[in-house]
Amino acid sequence: MKYICSVCGYVYDEETEGIPFDSLPEDWTCPMCKAPKSLFAEEDREEPERKAGIEYAEENMEKLPYGVVSAIFSNLARGAEKQYKERERELFTILAEYFSRISPPVVEACAESLSSLLSSDLSDLYPFVRERAEAVSDRGTLRVTVWGEKVTKMAAAILDRYAKEGDRLLENTDIWVCSVCGFIYIGDNPPSICPVCKVPDWKFERIGG
Fold first, then answer.
1. pLDDT digits 0-9 by tens, 29-51
2. What are the helix (H) ranges across 103-138?
3. What are phi and psi of 16, to 5 degrees?
4. What is the pLDDT of residues 74-109, one digit of tens each?
5. Which of 28, 45, 115, 182 has a CA positioned 20 to 30 A from the CA of residue 77?
6. Which residues contact 162 (CB under 8 A, 6 or more apart)?
């Protein structure tokens, strides 16, 4: 039986490895991206039914907070950078910085609330966006959805580890974030290539403090 990492696509082949996947210790992680064992799935396992539909969007429409708007423009700036559109990148960056400045602090910010938001994204929002993109054959949105879902899974896994290990998780190590897709990696050095979007290690930014 083969098991596939849902973040980077690494394949654990029981026949090659000589150890059943279920026999691996619970703290075993993906050799490539360090995703936990829980983010692996059997190669032939079908995805569960997705909850999606236009009704969901209509029921959950709301005015976006300034912080969210800032993040959207920041992502657009990254996209423009990848397409070598320097003028567009500058304009999106200016907008992102403006909305970041006027965004009020999030008083209720904590690991638990962030974990809840990530879970909601994975169970509801990503499936909804994927379904709508597939319906209109929007390949660009589908790619962003695939990347975003993998990055979100890893962020949720890191939060889960933090809930169990606390600050020990971050002792004597660094945090690296891919500047293209947002993938988070904990280690002394960034991976040689991003497990999600495949850019080289120099595209990773070290996060301090």
1. 999 899 999 999 988 654 444 34
2. 111-120, 126-135
3. -70, -45
4. 989 988 887 888 999 999 999 999 999 998 887 777
5. 115
6. 111, 169
